[in-house]
Amino acid sequence: MKNLEIARIFYDIADMLDFQGVSFKPEAYRRAARNLESMSQDLEVVWKQGKLALLPGIGKAMVKKIEEYMLEGSMEYYEKLKTEVPKGVLEIVEIQGVGPKTAKLLYDRLGIETVEQLKDAATSGRIQGLKGLGPKKGENILRGIELKAATRGRKLLGEAVPLVETIVEYMTLHAPVQSINVAGSVRRMKETVGDIDILVTSASRREVMEAFINMPNVREVLLKGNTKASVILKEEIQTDIRVLDEDSFGSALLYFTGSKDHNIQLRNLAIEKGLKLSEYGVFRGEERIAGSTEQDVYDTLGLAYIEPELREAQGEVEAALDGGLPHLVAQADIRGDLHVHTDWTDGHESLRDMVEAAKARGYEYVGISDHSKSLYIAGGMKDDEIRMQMAEVRRLRRDVEGIDILHGAEVDIKDDGELDFEDDILRELDYVIAAVHSKFKMQEEKMTERVVTAMENEHVDILAHPTCRLISEREPVALDMNRVIDAAVETRTSLELNSFVTRLDLNGSYARAAKEGGAKLVINTDSHATRHLDMMKFGIGQARRGWLEPSDVINTMRHGDLLSWLQS
Ligand code: DGT
Ligand code: CA
Ligand code: CA
Description:
Blueprint: H1 3-19, H2 25-38, H3 43-48, H4 60-72, H5 76-84, H6 89-92, H7 100-110, H8 115-123, H9 137-150, E1 155-156, H10 157-174, E2 177-182, H11 184-187, E3 192-193, E4 195-202, H12 205-213, E5 218-224, E6 228-233, E7 238-244, H13 249-257, H14 260-272, E8 276-278, E9 281-284, E10 287-290, H15 294-300, H16 316-321, E11 336-340, H17 351-360, E12 365-371, H18 383-399, E13 404-412, H19 423-428, E14 431-435, H20 444-456, E15 462-463, H21 481-491, E16 494-498, H22 508-516, E17 521-524, H23 536-545, H24 559-567
Parallel strand pairs: 4-7, 11-12, 12-13, 13-14, 14-15, 15-16, 16-17
Antiparallel strand pairs: 1-3, 2-4, 5-6, 6-7, 8-9, 9-10
Helix pairs in contact: 1-2, 1-7, 8-9, 13-15, 20-21, 22-23
The structure holds 2'-deoxyguanosine-5'-triphosphate and calcium ion (CA) (2 copies).
2'-deoxyguanosine-5'-triphosphate is lined by residues 184-185, 190, 193-195, 197, 255-256, 258-260, 263-264.
């Protein structure tokens, strides 16, 4: 879909206009970009139907630009802006702590045009004391640069997976592929991925290679051999494809799925048994004794099948030897999503639309959880508003059949651990999610106290995105996770595994620690649009990486059981 591509361009336009000091227009472009991102229809289809002008927040001038992009694949206005603004600016504004206005100020005063120059200036203290910037700006900028560098060249899992889906669909249509599978870190559902690895079997290697390097989103071909090709996609990620023999497809899939450390453990196990394991199969002497499926290979090594998400050399091989592997939670176990926003606050779609969309995904229930009053930027609800929302939920319960609606709220945790709604409101809700949305930089002890105090409130059922990190953008808050896990057990508060692509919070290793500490988790999407509901799979991926089983996760319970759990 072109939706995201054009939204990206509109965001860039907004940043560049901001940089030029233009007023109002940048916000209009950002609003349009957000709408494009969250709409569920394909923009190209809307364009072909001639209905672009009907989209909310898209004015005449923007319609023209979208049409131009659909027809020409480029946008003149955007290209022109890029010649007017220093090249590095778009990269600089991506750094946490540097908005377009700061970028402009740094350019005007210090001539900074690139991230490199920005880093120099911050390191040598030249940013300190610049008029208009806070005293700690230099430090913050350096931290932002480091954070970006730590994930440089890596993509979010949630960005890679849709690309993989497109590639698989394209290759299936345009080449005679028999089987096609993603391998590597994407298959292991790692939160960020370095590159995409695709494996296929086919009667015609040549046709596979041709189709692959001619995919519409290939920007550069790095390598084209007989069995392997590598390209860089327009989306700036490398993708490798390998064509394999059927006899060794399983062992190759195993090898290229990794992780490397898991592979090494398996290879050593093979050696102990007098066998040899490679990407070509399991061999006794010269004879191949397994290799066509992964199951075969694991069987031959005396192991139960190990799910890809577990293959991180974190005890899974030992568990597979003694029958101790977990029965991992899967999408089919999830009966509902309990973190869903609507246009009552900062969601993009109506309460009814969100409920219908959850129903369309086959859920038994959905929990509506809009923001509380203090979160102004998200349009948090005042007391009277949430009471009105309660009435709306009651109406919808009568109107919409086939799904149960739970009414909750995502309530801010104030500095002292108090909640942002009074008890009489909290009591009327089916459940309460508590969340930190401010003062992320508190010291560990204070932050832990703040969060634990909130969990001790008898109405709180869920702690949202516990570490508050945004992958490659915001560090996790300082939190004593052991204490939080203990508090979760004592107060019967479940810890959220937030599936939003930029959050994935708790991550797999914290999720595993929580499970081992006896806490319950809840896998939610934090949806702000109907299509966000599909991010559940990323949260489930992290849950599986954390060894979670259905019984560890409260939204695998039936509606009635969940209600009793929430009320007890
Ligand atoms: P990434 O792409 O950085 O997110 O991580 P991966 O795990 O996808 O790594 P990648 O793409 O370099 O290689 C894919 C898999 O191939 C990797 O998980 C394990 C396997 N592999 C690659 N190089 C080696 C190696 O030198 N030794 C072993 N045992 N396995 C390797
Ligand atoms: Ca990879
Ligand atoms: Ca690779």
